[in-house]
């Protein structure tokens, strides 16, 4: 039995007329009649009562119609899924990352995506959050990992929480707190902080102020920088401290130490964003990897 036999049967069952069913199927009536007879012989059951004036389903035909329709629906769904998966395995995908995210996201999400979809040319692009918003709206990147302020609103972008990462204190090697196993956050009150520029990373600024405010102080921002590693290098000179996501400990930088913070350890949230509307197969597959890595529901079904 082939799928075409099921299509022939369903057409006759719906039209209850062999001539109309044949025209609908774009075949001649004798061929259709012969195929239905062959199907009945294979099943060992009569599917239609035929007279010169009418065609109607037998009880066996009624039962078979239900299952035949389901089988055709399943086959069509399988075809769509296969085509969707084939489309998701080719093409190009540009993905933006804030500098502080590259040390965790690149390894986990991008690594897994490249292993699973080697035919897609995935292009990671290090970009600050404000630049990513513009790139997403322009369509020059498909997905962005960024930190947005809580009051950010846009009907043109979908933004979802991706991961919350613990913060660590970044100190000059000779700092008075560098010998501690864990640094109390309040001990950093009065220190000169180095952070990314506000206009580039407004979400980072907001979360930093919130974290420090919880510890009872407002950070004294003494230096802003556009590059994470430049900031690390400036910290090594001895004049600044910083709070960065724990994954930045992988950065090899002479003259600085990464210290865990005392409980309760503050966290910073990283979001994933994409342009509203229909997702390309490659983008949907990438966001599926994000769900797998983060353990969070990101894309609405």
From TrEMBL:
Q: Does the keyword Transcription regulation apply?
A: yes
Query: Which molecular function term from Gene Ontology is one that the record holds?
Result: DNA binding
**What InterPro entries does the record tag this protein with?**
LysR_HTH_N, LysR_subst-bd, WH-like_DNA-bd_sf, WH_DNA-bd_sf
As for family, the record states: Belongs to the LysR transcriptional regulatory family.
Q: Name one GO cellular component term.
A: protein-DNA complex
Q: Name one Pfam family in it.
A: HTH_1
* Stretches assigned to the HTH lysR-type domain: 1-58
Alphabetical UniProt keywords: DNA-binding, Transcription, Transcription regulation
Q: What is the official name of this protein in its record?
A: Transcriptional regulator, LysR family
């Amino acid at each position: 039995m082939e799928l075409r036999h099921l299509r022939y049967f369903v057409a006759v069952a719906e039209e209850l007329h062999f001539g109309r069913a044949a025209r609908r199927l774009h075949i001649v009536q004798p061929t259709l009649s012969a195929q239905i007879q062959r199907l009945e012989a294979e099943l060992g059951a009569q599917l239609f009562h035929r007279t010169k004036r009418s065609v109607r389903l037998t009880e066996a035909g009624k039962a078979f119609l239900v299952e035949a329709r389901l089988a055709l629906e399943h086959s069509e769904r399988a075809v769509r899924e296969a085509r969707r998966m084939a489309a998701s395995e080719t093409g190009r995908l540009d993905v933006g990352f804030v500098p502080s995210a590259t040390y965790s996201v690149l390894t986990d999400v991008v690594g897994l995506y490249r292993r699973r979809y080697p035919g897609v040319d995935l292009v990671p692009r290090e970009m600050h959050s404000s630049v990513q918003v513009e790139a997403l709206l322009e369509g020059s990147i498909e997905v962005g990992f960024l930190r947005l302020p809580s009051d950010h609103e846009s009907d043109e972008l979908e933004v979802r929480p991706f991961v919350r990462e613990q913060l660590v204190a970044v100190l000059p090697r000779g700092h008075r707190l560098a010998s501690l196993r864990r640094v109390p956050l309040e001990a950093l009150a009065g220190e000169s902080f180095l952070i990314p520029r506000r206009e580039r990373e407004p979400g980072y600024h907001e979360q930093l102020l919130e974290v420090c405010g919880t510890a009872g102080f407002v950070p004294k921002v003494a230096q802003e920088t556009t590059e994470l590693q430049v900031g690390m290098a400036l910290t090594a000179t001895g004049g600044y401290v910083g709070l960065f996501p724990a994954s930045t400990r992988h950065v090899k930088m002479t003259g600085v130490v990464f210290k865990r913070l005392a409980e309760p350890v503050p966290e910073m949230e990283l979001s994933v964003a994409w342009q509203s509307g229909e997702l390309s197969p490659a983008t949907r597959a990438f966001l599926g990897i994000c769900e797998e890595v983060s353990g969070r529901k990101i894309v609405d079904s």
